[in-house]
């Protein structure tokens, strides 16, 4: 079991276990121990209060001082747009169903890249934890890239990519700009049905470890490790860059995205 999320209220805790993860009772009980450990929220967005059809707000409601940055790039052919959508058919009854969606756009010219940027970290040693729900709606592949911000010299940078599609997650890391230097893959889940991704980044130079939960089951751990990894230190932030390549009328959808910095102990 990997992840400790930063939960400040019983409602959040209940949703994280019973709704977000859909875990069996024994698995949920084990996770509860991790969820109640002390930690600090550095990014939090569930999109439930956002307006359907609009862009997500540049600053999610409430603390911390995090950001959502939308950046357009020139493309040839169809692009990708970002919108808040309501998709009750993608989730179990009674669960939150408002998503931030990267949608294949038939209009050529621009494709939007989304960046979740945390508030600054308090230390250089506490692990960073990420938890989110996602689904590939239709055909395509989603990509998440995690790296430190501000960007350091290329020869000192660590950039890890997480690809979701075809019922698997494939991941790799570039250390110092070349590579990839380390790779791993995990499968055993349905990428076209909503699932929860849990990730831990050990600092200052430890591994990235990832696991997927769906329908009360957990996949094996995916581990990316290299002795020259370099993650955000005190006063720095984490960039989570999200992209999507898909077929017509397809989308990469997210909700309940949270990034925390765990206290020792």
Based on Cα principal axes, name the global outline: globular
Classify the secondary structure makeup into a structural class. mainly beta
* Annotated CATH topology: Jelly Rolls
Q: Could you give the count of β-strands?
A: 14
Q: What are the low-pLDDT stretches, counting only 5+ consecutive residues below 50?
A: 1-30
Please indicate the count of domains.
1
Proportion in helices: under 10%
Rg from Cα: 17 Å
Average pLDDT score: 83
Separation of termini?
16 Å
Count the DSSP helices.
2
Main sheet? 14 strands, antiparallel
Give the assembly state of these chains. Answer: single chain
CATH architecture: Sandwich
Topology:
Layout: H1 10-20, H2 25-35, E1 39-45, E2 67-86, E3 98-117, E4 128-137, E5 140-149, E6 158-165, E7 168-175, E8 178-187, E9 195-201, E10 208-214, E11 217-218, E12 222-224, E13 237-246, E14 251-262
Can you summarize this structure?
The chain has helices at 10-20, 25-35, and strands at residues 39-45, 67-86, 98-117, 128-137, 140-149, 158-165, 168-175, 178-187, 195-201, 208-214, 217-218, 222-224, 237-246, 251-262. It is mainly beta and 265 residues long. The protein has one domain (10-262): Jelly Rolls (Sandwich), CATH 2.60.120.200.
